[in-house]
Amino acid sequence: MRRTQVHAALAALAVTATLLPAAAHAATSAATSPPAADPALAGRPGEAVPAALATAHTAGRVEAAGRSVRYSWPGVYFEGRFRGTGVGIVLNDAANDYDVQIDGATVATLVTPGRTTYWVKNLRNGAHGVRLVKRSEGQWAVGEFGGFVAAPGGAILPKPADRRRQIEFIGDSYTAGYGNMSDTRDCPAPGQIDRTTNADVSFGALTARGLGADYQINAFSGRGVVRNYNGIEPGTDYRTYYDRALIGVPGDVWKNPGTWHPQLIVIGLGINDFSTAINPGEPWTPETLVAAYKSAYHGFIDKLRSRYGKKAVIVVSATYMSNTTAFADAARQIVQDRNKRGDDRVRYWYYDNTDLDYGGCDWHPSAHDHKIISQRLGDFIATLPLRW
């Protein structure tokens, strides 16, 4: 079975602005020009809490930008409530795709919408929920959310409360939902991977919603713990970017607002470290790569343990690979080592390829597969010593 190439996920994304309505009652007055200074996104100097979040809930890694917030990780979502017959969504992103959901149903997919206020109209007059979620990765791009706007005669209601349960998913393209909506494994067309990636139906998002949990999907395709896919971009790896709110901004650091304390962290890193042969000029042998992977992984767990405390459960996951068991063997050994040191809240989870069709782009898990993986993860989580 072939493994992921980074393809267009690492390239500049198309900046066309297209709207794909999924229901007749979704309509837009969107501007389709590229991102630029937008009065609706402009802020007041010294504003402590962005106005965009005064009436919108998010658990994602966002960074204040005046009245708006900026972000770049996949699966970031914003939830709100309103009364009336419509709602506007203030958005500025010419590189990523989004789903718009009303009362739990997707009413539109916004493809690289640019600077816009997207309007959903002609709803039943009453109270409704609205959710905006970033489908695609677009690691190097920055999106801006400017808040929800009530239609004439309506009102924005107080935002939903934070959920008590919180899960952080850390990983690569499998965690991001890379190409999971594709109906073919070959995705060579420009933008094809972006259009067919939907983090909102990845196994992490499905699992968290099934548990009634807030979540983050901090995933980066093609990245490993110490070695990226096929040795690309040596000197960087997943850990290079993990601490950032804006992935493509060197030195950026996400500032936890004090509300993010996940009781469960699920890590899926290792496919890219081990899926391809070591190339001439790379600084490893198979043995030293395993040693470097284990050492770096321990250091990463140390960081998570320091950040989230000794009670958080950390799941080190591995999965089937057709060409090697190095990933699963190393991940299992890491957990055994942690347990021997007295940390029994680090657990090992392996999911095999049974019933998976790998029908997504570049032989990645399909939407069908993500449902199965989510079910298996949910069963595993039920065995963990979580008090949430």
Largest sheet: 6 strands, antiparallel
CATH topology of the largest domain: Rossmann fold
Segments where pLDDT lies below 50 for 5+ residues? 1-47
Spatially, the strands of the biggest sheet line up as 1-7-6-9-4-11
Count of individual helical segments: 8
Q: How much β-strand is present in the residues?
A: 15-25%
Computed over alpha carbons, the radius of gyration is 21 Å
List the helices and strands and how they pair.
Blueprint: E1 18-21, E2 63-65, E3 68-71, E4 77-84, E5 87-93, E6 97-102, E7 105-111, E8 114-120, E9 126-134, E10 143-150, E11 155-157, E12 166-171, H1 173-176, H2 192-196, H3 203-210, E13 214-219, H4 238-241, E14 264-268, H5 271-274, H6 286-308, E15 313-319, H7 326-340, E16 346-351, H8 367-381
Task: Explain what you see.
The longest helix is centred in the C-terminal third of the chain and has 23 residues, at 286-308. Strand 6 and strand 7 form a beta hairpin. Residues 1-47 have low confidence and may be disordered. Helices cover 20% and strands 25% of the residues. It folds into two domains: 7-157, Jelly Rolls; 166-381, Rossmann fold, CATH 3.40.50. With 388 residues, the protein is an alpha+beta fold. The strands form three sheets. A six-stranded antiparallel sheet has the order 1-7-6-9-4-11, with no helix packed on it. A five-stranded antiparallel sheet has the order 2-3-10-5-8, with no helix packed on it. Helix 3 (203-210) crosses helix 8 and helix 6 (286-308) crosses helix 7.
